[in-house]
Each structure stands twice: as structure tokens, then as C-alpha cells.
Amino acid sequence: xVAVSSELLDALTALEKQKGISRxxxxxxxxxxxxxxxxxxxxxxxxxRVDINLANGSMxxxxxxxxxxEVGDGRLEISLEDAQAINPHYAIGDVVEEEVTxxxxxxxxxxTAKQVVTQRVREAERGLIYEExxxxxxxxxxxxxxxxxxxxxxxxxxxxxxxxxxxxxxxxETYRPHDRIKVYITKVERTTRGPQVFVSRTxxxxxxxxxxxEVPEIFEGIVEIKSIAREAGDRSKISVFAHNEExxxxxxxxxxxxxxxxxxxxELSGEKIDIVEWSEDPIVFVANALSPSxxxxxxxxxxxxxxxxxxxxxxxxxxxxxxxxNARLAAKLTGWKIDIKSETDARELGIYPNExxxxxxxEELENDMDDFDFYKDEE
Length: 379
Prior knowledge:
Layout: E1 2-3, H1 6-18, H2 23-41, E2 47-53, E3 58-68, E4 77-79, H3 80-86, E5 95-99, H4 105-134, E6 140-148, E7 153-156, E8 161-164, E9 180-191, E10 194-200, H5 204-214, H6 216-219, E11 223-231, E12 235-242, H7 249-254, H8 259-267, E13 272-277, H9 282-289, E14 297-301, E15 306-311, H10 316-320, H11 325-334, E16 337-342, H12 343-349
Parallel strand pairs: 3-4, 8-10, 12-13, 15-16
Antiparallel strand pairs: 1-3, 2-3, 3-5, 6-7, 6-9, 7-8, 9-10, 11-12, 14-15
């Protein structure tokens, strides 16, 4: 019999209170590890069992042998005659246990117990960290750039290091160690080395969360973000809708002199953001989505979920945008295919004007920002 140190007993009690790790679970793990340590250190292949008794502070190693008529392996079996010499009540098929605790097993036991406890504490902490961050998927967090390699950037989130893959980085941004950045948690996985958190700077969800942080009306649910189309680092479009008719959804997002949206633009390193009003009418919604261009007419094909949009000749390049970006983002924002025609081409094709599609003029949003133009497009 080996005495169990009072320090181990105190440690088990403290871990149960502080880390929430059951003492019984730890004892079972230590006993299993001690069996392995006994076999390894004492070159014993026999079946053994380790019993830790917290009540009297003892630890005993028992050999376990099956009672048989003929012994094939003396390390694993014992004859009925020998078994009954120990206790006359033994019968074939019973298991005989004998104490085989080595004299110097205490030191090995202490080392093993320490390793097991350390490992279990580490596993428990990893589990707690995983549970904390898996609940924060699709959320925005502050982090500090810790290190970089050829493909990934590693962002410290406090208890864990998150991975910002190259395809989730904004192309126009440069990251340096110790930079503070906001990132969007896309995925949390369990791995053998602990929880692995993946984050993004390009995900549309980042833009959504930033608006929720900056615009109280969105956070409170008065204004709703209906859809987002984003080409990270360059330009984004969001559609918004107010559940209260007295609230201007676009104005709420822009803020006084563009202050609210400017904060988000700064966080995204100058990414341009178009804010348009959502409408359940595809004619109005598509026209709004092509902002800052004026629209004369929108013709809808419900079957193909496509639209033909007529714009003034001088607005054609603005409606299409640089490298087709404005039209591409508008299509992604609305979920409709958009074919843009100039007024001259539409008249030549005989599709404009027509009595089924009355002239539609979308007024540009007026804002009095002094030094920031959301809608200026470089042709």
C-alpha cells in the first residue's frame, strides 16, 4: 500500500471547484494511467487494477487472475486449488485479486498523477474555450495581429489564437504585428491541439455586424438589413427597410453628415458603401440598387427572374460601373439578373417607352456630407 499525498487530494478538490472537473472523473483517469505506468515501469504484462481510496489516503495495486482448471499463463490465470487456498469460496470463472504494490511505486504514482491532472485540466480548459467561441460564431470580435506567415495571419483573441486565411483578408489591407483589427468569426472546430477559430475580414456578416454596432435603429430592430452584396476592400451595397414608416432607413444608416457610415468605411480601410432602400416591388428595388445612377424604366421578367433597365445615355457608364461592378453588385443585392440599356438603344429596340412600364425616375439621396462622397465612381 502506498500513501496518497495530501497535496494531491487538495489539488483534486480545488480542481473540482475551480475548473468544474469531477473528482471521480480525475480519479478514474489517474487509476487508468497508473495501470499503464505499472506495466511499463515494472515490466509486468499481468492484468492489474489500481485502487485509490480517498477516505484513508491509500493507493493499492492488485493483480487480477482468472480461476481455471488448468493454468496456461501464470501471469493471467490461477488454478482452482491455489485460489481456494486463498479463499475456499472461489469457483471456476471467478477473479482472484492479490496486492502487488511495489515499494517504490509512490514516486511513479505521483509523477503519473501530476501528468494526468495537467492533461485533464488542459482538456477541460480547451473545452471551455471551445464552448465560449462556438457560441460566438457569426459574431464580431476585436483582436490583435500576433504573427504572419506566407498564407495566414494569426490574430490573438485573448484565450485563443484565430486564423485569418489569405482568402478572407481584404486585398487592399496590410497587416502588421500588434495591429488591432475587428474580425468576424466564421467557424470554430475541435482539434487535437484545442479549439481552432477561423475569422474573416471579407465576409458580408462583418459588414452587417458593423452596422448593428454603429446604428442603434438596426440593433433595436427598427431598421432591418435585408441583403448585402460585397466586394471586400472596394465597394459594397446594402439594402435596408424600416418597420416604422416615420423612420428613414437610409438616413439612419448614413447618420448626420455621414458620421455613422464613415466610421464603418474607416474600419474597412476606405471600402465604399452604397446604402439603398429595400422594396418588395422588384421595379423599385432594382432601380434603387443601381444607385447612384438614375433609372428611367425597369421591365421585369418574372419567369426568368431578370430585368431590363433603361437609363439616360449619360448615365450608362455610371449604372454599369467600373469593370461592371455597380451592375454586378446590384444584381447580387436584389437577386435579379439586370440587363442595362441606354435610352437611345432602348428606343431603337422599341422597348422604351411602353405603356406597361411607366417612366420611373429614382431621385438620388440628398446628403450634406462635406468631404465624403459614397457614390463617386471612377470611370
